[in-house]
Amino acid sequence: MPAAPRTIRLDPADNLIVAVDPLEPGFEGYGARAAAKIPRGHKMAIERVPQGAPLRKFGQIIGFATRDVAPGEHVHTHNCEFAAFARDYAHAENARPWDPLPIERRRTFQGYRRADGRAGTRNYIGILTSVNCSASVARFMAEALTRSGILDDYPEIDGVVPFVHGTGCGMAAKGEGYDILQRTSWGYATNPNVGAVLLVGLGCEVFQIAEMKKAYGIQESDKFRSMTIQDTGGTRKTIEAGVAAIKEMLPTAAKVKREPIPASELMLALQCGGSDGYSGITANPALGAAVDLLVEQGGTAILSETPEIYGAEHLLTRRAASREVGEKLVEIIKWWEGYTAKHGGSMDNNPSPGNKAGGLTTILEKSLGAAAKGGTTTLRGVYRYAERVDTKGFVFMDTPGYDPTSATGQVAGGANVLCFTTGRGSAYGCKPTPSIKLATNSDIYRRMIDDMDVNCGDIVDGVTVRDKGKEIFEKILAVASGEKSKSEELGYGDNEFVPWQIGATM
């Protein structure tokens, strides 16, 4: 006889179950009979839910019934909607002391120790641009160096990457948008995975290289050079000068060698994209278990994507180290409510069509699953976009939910490794920070095997979240030590530098 389709009730308080396998009409579970076919990853009501009453998953509100919902009904966008509701933030109620393992008991990885004490997992040469007008020149420089074959003489160099963007001019010369671009650019220039940097501008743009150097006290050196197309004499001369400058920096950048470094020096960026109904059940909790292991080692993990923790932020404020930390997160949530309202949007703009096809109905449901990436330890800090992260343990950084922009902020903040969960199959990679792709279900792992590093779908087959967390943690150490992730093998990362643009384009 074929096995009965599997379902999960995630909390005794839930009035919904999740279909692990597709449910046919007539399926019976938890005292309810399916009235219609329910796709895998989607939800079925197991209790009568009156119109306007909350629908619960994870023991939390994920939406409200738009009409009376009978037991056995498919619950999705046709009968469940987002609505704002009051949440008890209970700041620091569940905070626990941070007690990492002693240094002698910590795991190590093979990394690059930098002059400022931080540790890198990769060693790239970065070509940063101050403005879109210098983007092509930066790409031409990188292509010329790659074609020349000179990198073959420097095996410790992972490559030359042009970090180009579409702004830098036609923007206000001061204010939040300008500050973010400046902070992001300098964050990439000083990320521990970057061994040397060339900064290229046009010359007349709003975002002036000289102003950035003044703001951060930057001096020209054998690891940092800058130039503008106008001062250097045009496109060809700038390409030649840039290639020559990088060739001069290569020997210095290549001097570093991998050495054993405590796992406490890892700073892990947490991302999810192309989420589905499995995300909050498999990959995200498993990544959270890996985060707990990293924090135990004294390391750092950065949860982000503020619009995708909306509705779950009260679970994070409870874990805040102090009321001040919790209130900082709430202020960010309020800013986003005002930001979306100002532009005629809604915090429920997420989930995307693909998320909904995978079983996610509202932003509340998506956020509850997404927040699981942060594990269970105390929230020790809250940071602005692209701000240097200087706190160990579990922290939060304010970023948009758009993955390339969010990850750009985390890398600028210092992340030297990244884990990305996906259920629909996001095509993403990152430079200079390697991205480890975690599949939420076994089907997407098999279909996109060239993109996926770890299959978390076997959790629904009996593998424990704890054991999968250990597997992810071991993969993090291996990739941090130089093992290439699938996205690196495919060559992703040259187009994923996407700074957050705030403010008018003028």
Which percent band covers the strand fraction?
A: 15-25%
Mean model confidence by pLDDT: 96
Spatial extent as radius of gyration: 24 Å
Low-confidence stretches: none
The tally of strands reads 23
Structural class determined from secondary elements: alpha/beta
Distance between the termini: 67 Å
Shape: globular
Summary tags:
506 residues, alpha/beta, 7-stranded parallel β-sheet, 14 helices
Write the layout of secondary structure elements.
Layout (H helix, E strand, L loop, with lengths): L6 E2 L7 E4 L8 E2 L2 E2 L9 E3 L8 E4 L2 E6 L8 E2 L4 E2 L26 E6 L5 E2 L3 E6 L5 H14 L10 E5 L12 H14 L4 E8 L7 H8 L7 E5 H4 L2 H19 L5 E4 L4 E6 L10 H14 L3 E4 L9 H5 L5 H20 L10 H5 L5 H8 L8 E5 L9 E5 L5 H10 L4 E6 L12 E5 L2 H6 L6 E2 L9 H16 L5 H5 L16
Parallel strand pairs: 12-13, 12-14, 14-15, 17-18, 17-21, 18-20, 19-20, 21-22, 22-23
Antiparallel strand pairs: 1-2, 2-5, 3-4, 5-8, 6-7, 7-9, 10-11, 10-16
Describe the 3D structure:
With 506 residues, this protein is α/β, with parallel strands linked by helices. It is built from 14 helices and 23 strands. A seven-stranded parallel β-sheet has the order 19-20-18-17-21-22-23, with helices on both faces. It has a four-stranded antiparallel β-sheet with strand order 1-2-5-8, with no helix packed on it. Helix 1 packs across helix 5, helix 2 crosses helix 11 and helix 6 crosses helix 13. The longest helix has 20 residues.
